[in-house]
Each structure stands twice: as structure tokens, then as C-alpha cells.
């Protein structure tokens, strides 16, 4: 299993200390550096070359979203997980659009952090259920839903997206639907194109927003 090199970014030192204590208990995880601001985060990425950044979405000065955009532009293979203190944080949708692969609550324990990191390691989305519910409520308030939000997808693509929304990796989706990994990758690429989603996290959030688990059109 590939070791994860983590960078912790939060403008509160006590939060970084707590996260480091939790993360150092996890096998194959190394905290390579810390940063206390968006600018420091970008500089630390250049210095330490982490493959995962765990970053506060709200910080004094430039936000974690600003740092995420810069990091994704300069190091597109880096995975950014956003931390949020409030499940109804209105910045979460912007974080997803900036390229974050997921979001977790600051109050998570070791188990939740392990699940989030395992999801990222397997190429899946790290979606905190509590945050996802509030994002769903927030997005519903922004406008009426389309009559059929998944109307352009085939039945198979809906099935793939449903599992994607559960945080499943490509391998897990392939096993559940008895497909090859290549076929799953092709389906996800087509889904992103049809939904005009920037990445799998945005597609997963869209699916949750439109209640894909109760969606049916007789496919």
C-alpha cells in the first residue's frame, strides 16, 4: 500500500497538533510538514511535495479554497481534503469546484480520518456524511431541481454514479457491477462530461443533492 505524505494546514496550532497526534497512529502515513496559512501551504507543498494536503477551509487571510486552487494548478496530482468546523459551511461547494477530493469535519476521530485517507488512497471521494447532508440542503435552497437531473445518463451510468456517491473506489464499483476497471473509468469519464462536473467529488455531491439513491426511471 502506498504510503501517504501529509501536509497539515490550519491557522490554529492546537488543531494541527491534534491532527498530527491522530494521524501518527495510522500505519503508512507520514506527516511531512505543517502550515498556518494559505501562502505557507503553497510554499510547504513546494518544499515537502506531499501527496495529500489536509487543509482548513476557513483561515485568516486567504482561504483554504484559494490555496487549493493554486495547489491543484501547480501540483495536479496532489489530493486536497478540506476540513470544516460547521457542516453547513457554504464554502464547501466552492472547495469542490477548486479541486478538493473531499471534506471532513474537524471533530472527526481516528476512525473517520482513516476512512477518509483510505478513500483518497483508493481514488474515491472522502465525503463526510454530515457535511454532505448540509451541502444537499444548501444546494436545494439555491434553486429548483431539474425535472430529471440524470436524464442524459444511461442506466449503467446511473448505477456507477450511485456507487460513486457512496464513496466507492473504481475497483469496488467494478466488483459490485461485474465490470472491468477500464470500463468503470470510461463510465466515470462519460458521467463527468454529461454532468459538466470537474471531478468525481463534484459528481458525487451532485448525485447526493438530487437524491440518486431514490432515483428511478424504470431503467
Secondary-structure topology with pairs:
Layout (H helix, E strand, L loop, with lengths): L3 E6 L3 H11 L5 E7 L2 H11 L3 E5 L7 H11 L4 E6 L7 H7 L3 E4 L4 H12 L4 E2 L1 H13 L13 H11 L4 H8 L3 H15 L4 H10 L10
Parallel strand pairs: 1-2, 1-3, 3-4, 4-5, 5-6
Helix pairs in contact: 2-3, 6-10, 7-9, 7-10, 8-9
Low-confidence stretches: none
Name the strands of the widest sheet in spatial order: 2-1-3-4-5-6
Structural class: alpha/beta
Write the H/E string, N to C.
Answer: EHEHEHEHEHEHHHHH
Count of beta strands: 6
Query: In angstroms, what is the radius of gyration?
Result: 17 Å
CATH superfamily of the largest domain: Response regulator
Beta-strand residue percentage: 5-15%
* Number of contiguous helices: 10
> In the CATH hierarchy, what is the class of the largest domain?
Alpha Beta
What name is given to the CATH topology of the largest domain? Rossmann fold
Helicity level? 40-55%
What is the first-to-last residue Cα distance? 38 Å
Q: Any guess at the CATH architecture of the largest domain? A: 3-Layer(aba) Sandwich
Q: What does the largest sheet look like?
A: 6 strands, parallel
Amino acid at each position: 500500500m502506498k504510503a501517504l505524505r501529509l501536509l497539515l494546514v490550519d491557522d490554529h496550532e492546537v488543531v494541527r497538533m491534534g491532527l498530527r497526534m491522530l494521524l501518527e497512529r495510522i500505519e503508512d502515513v507520514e506527516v511531512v510538514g505543517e502550515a498556518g496559512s494559505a501562502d505557507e501551504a503553497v510554499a510547504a507543498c513546494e518544499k515537502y511535495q506531499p501527496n495529500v494536503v489536509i487543509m482548513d477551509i476557513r483561515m485568516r487571510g486567504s482561504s483554504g479554497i484559494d490555496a487549493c486552487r493554486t495547489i491543484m494548478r501547480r501540483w495536479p496530482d496532489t489530493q486536497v481534503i478540506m476540513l470544516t468546523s460547521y457542516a453547513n459551511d457554504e464554502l464547501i461547494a466552492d472547495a469542490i469546484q477548486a479541486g478538493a477530493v473531499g471534506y471532513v469535519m474537524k471533530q472527526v476521530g481516528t476512525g473517520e480520518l482513516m476512512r477518509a485517507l483510505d478513500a483518497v488512497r483508493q481514488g474515491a471521494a472522502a465525503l463526510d456524511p454530515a457535511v454532505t447532508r448540509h451541502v444537499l440542503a444548501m444546494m436545494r435552497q439555491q434553486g429548483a431541481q431539474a425535472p430529471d437531473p440524470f436524464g442524459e445518463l444511461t442506466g449503467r451510468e446511473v448505477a456507477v454514479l450511485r456507487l460513486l456517491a457512496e464513496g466507492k473506489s473504481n475497483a469496488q464499483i467494478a466488483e459490485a457491477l461485474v465490470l472491468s476497471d477500464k470500463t468503470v473509468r470510461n463510465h466515470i469519464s462519460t458521467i463527468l462530461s454529461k454532468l459538466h462536473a470537474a471531478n468525481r467529488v463534484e459528481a458525487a455531491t451532485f448525485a447526493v443533492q438530487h437524491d440518486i439513491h431514490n432515483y428511478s426511471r424504470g431503467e
